[in-house]
Amino acid sequence: MATNDKAAAVAELQEKFKNSNAAVVTAYTGLTVAQLKTLRRSLGENAQYSVAKNTLSKIAAKEAGVNGLDEYFKGSTAVAFVTGDPVATAKGLRDFAKENPALVIKGGFIDGKSLTADEVNRLADIESREVLLAKLAGALQATTAKAAATFQAPLTKFVRTADALRAKVEQEGAGEPAPAE
């Protein structure tokens, strides 16, 4: 590569590192072009999967302020730059790697903290953001319904007691003769 091309490649990678809230570094040796295309499609709009030269990636990561990835830039390297939900991307990569053992997750970073391959796989085990939000909403709704029932209980008890008292008074009143005038 010419020096100008290298500088442009470093600038592009640096921009990707800066704009990403996470990245996963992988080895892709043995994957076909069709498999890489399938992987890119499976990651969707959450991530951009880019094959990169190791030296240029190291420089770009350092210039972007991302540390702790140097050890992963060895051999064939591609990086999934995540701009959306990092859990969804980690799941996508893990699931693809199960079907295609040639894809190896080396490590990554999330919000400035470097991750090992095991940590990326544990991240993939977390439920997605949407599922967690749905569970939270369900829990809040159940809590609200329970609170409403709790607040309503004394009022209901009062109404039942008043109704029973009214019925008792009516029954006692029906058994006695009417007052004389």
Overview of the structural elements:
The structure is a single chain. With 181 residues, the protein is of the alpha+beta class. Helix content is 60%, strand content 15%. It contains 6 helices and 5 strands; from the N terminus they run αβαβαβαββαα. A 5-stranded antiparallel beta sheet has the order 2-3-1-4-5, sandwiched between helices. The longest helix is centred in the last third of the chain and has 47 residues, at 129-175. It is rod-shaped. The model has no long low-confidence stretch (mean pLDDT 84).
Which terms summarize this structure?
about 180 residues, alpha+beta, 6 helices, 5 strands, rod-shaped
Ordered list of secondary-structure elements with their pairings:
Layout (H helix, E strand, L loop, with lengths): L2 H17 L2 E6 L5 H11 L3 E5 L2 H10 L14 E5 L3 H14 L4 E7 L2 E4 H9 L3 H47 L6
Antiparallel strand pairs: 1-3, 1-4, 2-3, 4-5
Helix pairs in contact: 1-3, 4-5
